[in-house]
Amino acid sequence: MSFLEIQEVSKSYRSRKGRQTEAVQKVSLSLERGRCLGVVGESGCGKSTLCRMIAGVVRPDSGEIWLEGSSVREKKNRKKIQMVFQNSLDAVNLHLNAGRILSEPLENFFSMSREERRNKTEGLLELVGLSKEDAGKYPKQFSGGQLQRICIARALAAEPELLLLDEPLSSLDVSVQAQLLNLLADLKREFRLTGILVSHDLEAVYYLADELAVMYSGALVETLSDITALDCLRHPYARRLLSVHNGEAGTEQAEGKSLPEERGEACVYASQCPKADGLCFSKSPELSEREDGHKIACHYI
Q1: What does DSSP assign to residue 175?
Q2: Contact between 137 and 147 (Cβ < 8 Å)
């Protein structure tokens, strides 16, 4: 079994009006220690829900997620799995200063004296490019990029074995995004971090990740075990993402295709795919390996 193993995980939500949304549909993935997986897709594709299920904060409706052979929901894995969220202001207690924010995981997971915690906190601040004098500042005294650095430092304080990054850059301006990407890349190399980066930005994922998973409407449509083979993406939706990454005009997309009333297990991308036909609207393609380390969910590839 791999370091992280995700098998047939699904999650659905029901709206107040009773409509059911399949947020994640039978997703299976694995990740080896020391590797970083990038999960990309547009907003609402289920990538953040998947990330929260891996963190153990959302329970899947079906399927299992294991970390080194034990369920991610087991108490012993709380320290091993840490997460950095998209909105840093929502992720911290605004009434605590940076020192207290960073000392919380130290108090929860380690036996340390007050002086040891202070020294560790100062070291964490410097690790993410801040000053030990920043320990006395409160969240609203930091810029968005600085506060996200504190959230990264808090996650690292627990000495995690798996670091989950859920759109950590999307609320920041481009220059700050670049700085944080460089920081994350340095930390990955220094600590040999195993991580999952969830993003709608293929360029950011390409910079940081080793592997790639593309999601659409809750399902995996393509995966690559080697992200340097990015130009080998072949699923129509993945090609659309790639065209944006390469600064090209968007690839052809279907307009106005409607799903038949009796469509069975249709491909999740059928209504948007210019090549979709009756088979696509009646049967969901399996995510199958076409080349070594390259899986695609499409009837015609």
Answers
A1: H
A2: no
- Give the up-direction half-sphere exposure of residue 62: CA atoms within 13 A in the CB hemisphere: 8
Contact 230, 212 (CB under 8 A): yes
Q: Give the contacts of 273 (CB within 8 A, at least 6 positions apart).
A: 236, 237, 253, 254, 257, 267, 280
Q: For residues 183 and 129, is the Cβ–Cβ distance under 8 A?
A: yes
User: How does residue 134 score in pLDDT terms, banded at 50, 70 and 90?
Assistant: very high
Residue 294's contacts (CB-CB under 8 Å, 6 or more residues apart) are 222, 223, 224, 225, 229, 232
CA pair distance 210, 192, nearest whole angstrom:
12
DSSP 297: -
Spatial neighbors of 277 by CB under 8 A, at least 6 apart, are none
The DSSP letter of residue 111 is: -
The stretch 104-130 carries a mean pLDDT of 96
Please tell me the pTM assigned to this model: 0.93
How far is 235 from 283, CA to CA, in rounded Å?
16
Rounded CA separation 296/234 (Å): 8
DSSP 3-state assignment of 260? coil
Indicate the SS3 state at residue 214.
strand
Cα(28)–Cα(223) distance, integer angstroms = 11
